[in-house]
Amino acid sequence: MSRSGAPAEPRNSRRNSPEQPYQNLPGDVLGDGTIGGEMEALAAVMRRLRARNGCPWDRAQTHESLRPYLLEEAYEVLAAIDGGDSDALRGELGDLLLQIVFHAQIAAEHDRFALADSIRAIREKLLHRHPHVFGDRKLETPGEVRDAWEKLKLADETNGEPPRSVLEGVPKSLPALVRAFRVQEKMAGVGFDWPNASGALEKLAEEMKEVSAAVLSGDRDHAEEELGDLLFSAVNAARLAGIAAEDALRRSTEKVIRRFQAIERLVREDGCELTDLTLDQLDAYWDRVKELERRRDG
Fold it and tell me: Rounded to a whole number, what is the largest CA-CA distance in the chain?
């Protein structure tokens, strides 16, 4: 029986394991199929990679040098989710977990904290912020849970002292759409919010008019400000409609890529070059691709 409560997978059943080709591997880098055993083995692998006789590349890394890899792996997880590919998601979650183990090992080498400290911290946080599950508080809807979480988080961040701002804790490093979403969530947590998407949509239409006027005026700074307001309002409308703006924009971008690549194929099949076509001709191909999609999707 595994530590997770499920039967452990027999070691000899893992025929496709990359461990198999290697002989005489240290025992501490071999997992046993349980959550705890695999985590301990992964941490041991990282310790050995960072050791004096380990991997030169891994030994050279710092928290700062690993930043782009952490972000890249997070986005690859999102891509696997968007693609609905469970095998890819399994692998990408492992890659993301590696980044966490990597950062924890670097911290441990400087006597700051260990991997177990991070695991314990998130476990204790989940217990504390789910009083409706692990305590006697009653919260019935996802909205009530979200609001309670934000209030508990704010109290934790300020150690019970009056906060300087409810918007403390929203990282500046977040992508702009995600940061706008989090700012709006935090404001909503104290009641500063539209009651539904209708008001946000009216505001979006208002901002669109202001953008048009600003762009036509030729004032670049004013136009940039108004376009920012429009995007912020679009994120707000999406949030109140239960849609993550980051996901919506990523989906639309993928749709445009798919359609444009279809145009490229059709143009090549017609013996033409994109650069030789007029805008009207390219628009005609675009409409043709959309019609093909409609027929395909039925």
Answer: 73
> pLDDT truncated to tens, each residue of the chain (298 aa)?
334 444 444 333 343 455 556 667 888 899 899 999 999 999 999 999 999 999 999 999 999 999 989 989 998 998 899 889 999 999 999 999 999 999 999 999 999 999 999 999 999 999 999 999 998 899 888 888 888 887 787 777 767 666 678 887 788 888 899 999 999 988 888 888 999 899 999 999 999 999 999 999 999 999 999 999 999 999 999 999 999 898 899 899 999 999 999 999 999 999 999 999 999 999 999 999 999 999 988 7
Record the pTM.
0.65
Cα 58–45–61 angle (5° rounding)?
A: 15
Q: Where are the domains of the chain?
A: 24-126, 247-297
CA distance 238 to 184: 11
Paired tokens of 155: 């109290």
Fold of 24-126: Helix Hairpins (1.10.287)
**Whole-angstrom distance, CA of residue 277 vs CA of residue 285:** 10
